[in-house]
Specification:
- With 402 residues, the chain is of the alpha+beta class.
- Helices cover 36% and strands 18% of the residues.
- Strands 10-11-12-13-14 form a five-stranded mixed sheet, covered by helices on one side. A four-stranded mixed sheet has the order 1-8-9-7. Strands 2-4-3 form a three-stranded antiparallel sheet.
- Strand 13, helix 13 and strand 14 form a beta-alpha-beta unit.
- It is globular.
């Protein structure tokens, strides 16, 4: 018997809808409205690179044009509606999800204690009690407030002194909570002083099976269709074995079904989905062009994005300049339900200019005057968001597809 099938266009639209990109970027972008958007996404990745705006701000702006960076800072640091921890990377996460991070704290503690003995140099475990007592006595700290008598290694930015490593370990394992950032430097406090007592590790029982069930369900709700491996990697806490066992049970219970999804290249891929997903209807996305962050959640899984959208994207921040295909920090361009290209641009804040050095259309895209006009409209929105005065283009900004 043939499996239910989802064609590529419908699959793209459903996936975009779950990531809040299948609608106009209008509506409230602060307080409860912003929190609901982040709940819908699951989390928002944090990143320090600020060529135009930081990744987390670009992610939210691309979905709500009225968003401004102070809105997230207020929701996180003042309202305490979000907490910061790891999914696949550092992220802000709705506070009501916190109980499901107890398993992450436990697993990070086990993993990092062994991994960091070799990577972060010896001595950090002996600093746990000292660091905790310092915070207990003096209040929240950043890494510059501890270990002042300790020598930093010479291995680069990651070669932390032992007290800095202790801070990070105690945060990752749940004893400390990040309460905000100054610039982009984290500030840590005792979890018991930040998180409501009944939610703290040790005061609330959250069984592994219960957490795995919540994480897999929450991942499926946001992915629409997935393999067990994709479910596991969404939050990066559940193992692939656990996701496979969860999926098998959900299939038996009729909570999931197998479907076929048509990839961008026409191949069929067998995936899991909620019953009836192939019949779901979603209005077509608006035709405007949007600049996405390189860390946008819709593109986070690069292989999935390539299968679904036919868009091959790799960030080249850590690639030597001479070996880059495109550029240091190149922004993907979305139009309707298609990825149409990538743009290399940077804010020159001294001159108040958003400077576009290059744009590469995808091979299947004909770059028309109408597209250029839509691009100008989007860049003007980005320019205003970044607090700049005008947009300038290099002489030969429009490149041939690669």
């Amino acid at each position: 018997m043939a499996l239910p099938r989802l064609d590529n266009k419908a699959a793209r639209t459903l996936f975009m809808d779950r990531h809040a990109l299948a609608e106009q970027p209008s509506g409230g972008a602060k307080g409860g409205d912003l929190l609901n958007l982040i709940r819908r996404l699951g989390f928002v990745q944090l990143d320090s690179i600020n060529t135009v705006a930081r990744a987390h701000d670009m992610i939210l702006f691309s979905r709500r044009s009225s968003y401004r960076a102070t809105n997230l800072k207020r929701l996180y640091e003042r309202d305490k509606a979000l907490f910061e921890h790891w999914t696949h990377d550092a992220a802000v996460i709705p506070m009501e999800f916190y109980p499901h991070w107890h398993l992450r704290f436990q697993r990070d503690a086990e993993l990092l204690k062994s991994r960091w003995k070799n990577w972060r140099r010896d001595g950090f475990e002996q600093r746990f009690a000292t660091v905790l007592q310092h915070i207990r006595d003096h209040g929240p700290v950043s890494s510059s407030d501890v270990g002042k008598d300790e020598k930093k290694g010479s291995g680069g930015w990651w070669d932390w002194h032992p007290s800095k490593t202790a801070l990070e370990f105690l945060w990752r394992s749940g004893a400390l909570t990040v309460i905000g950032r100054s610039g982009f430097q984290k500030r840590y406090d005792l979890t018991e002083r930040v998180i409501e007592t009944h939610l703290c590790p040790g005061n609330m029982s959250c069984e592994t099976e219960e957490t795995v069930d919540w994480l897999c369900n929450a991942a499926m709700d946001r992915l629409c269709f997935a393999t067990p491996g994709e479910l596991a990697s969404f939050w990066d806490t559940v193992t692939v074995t656990e996701a496979k066992e969860w999926s098998k049970k959900a299939l038996t219970q009729g909570k999931l079904q197998e479907i076929e999804v048509t990839c961008a290249d026409g191949r069929l891929r067998k995936l899991l989905a909620r019953p009836g997903m192939t019949e779901a209807k979603t209005p077509p996305p608006p035709g405007r062009i949007r600049v996405l962050s390189p860390f946008d959640p819709m593109l986070r899984d690069r292989n999935r994005a390539e299968r679904l959208f036919g868009f091959h994207y790799r960030i080249e921040v850590f690639v030597p300049a001479a070996k880059r295909t495109y550029g240091y920090y190149v922004f993907p361009l979305l139009e309707g339900d298609r990825m149409i290209g990538r743009i290399d641009m940077k804010a020159n804040r001294d001159l108040g200019i958003l400077y576009v050095s290059a744009l590469w259309p995808e091979r299947s895209v004909r770059w028309s005057d109408a597209r250029t006009k839509r691009l100008h409209s989007e860049l003007d929105r980005v320019r205003r968001f970044a607090g700049l005065d005008r947009v300038d283009f290099s002489k030969d900004w429009l490149k041939d597809p690669k």
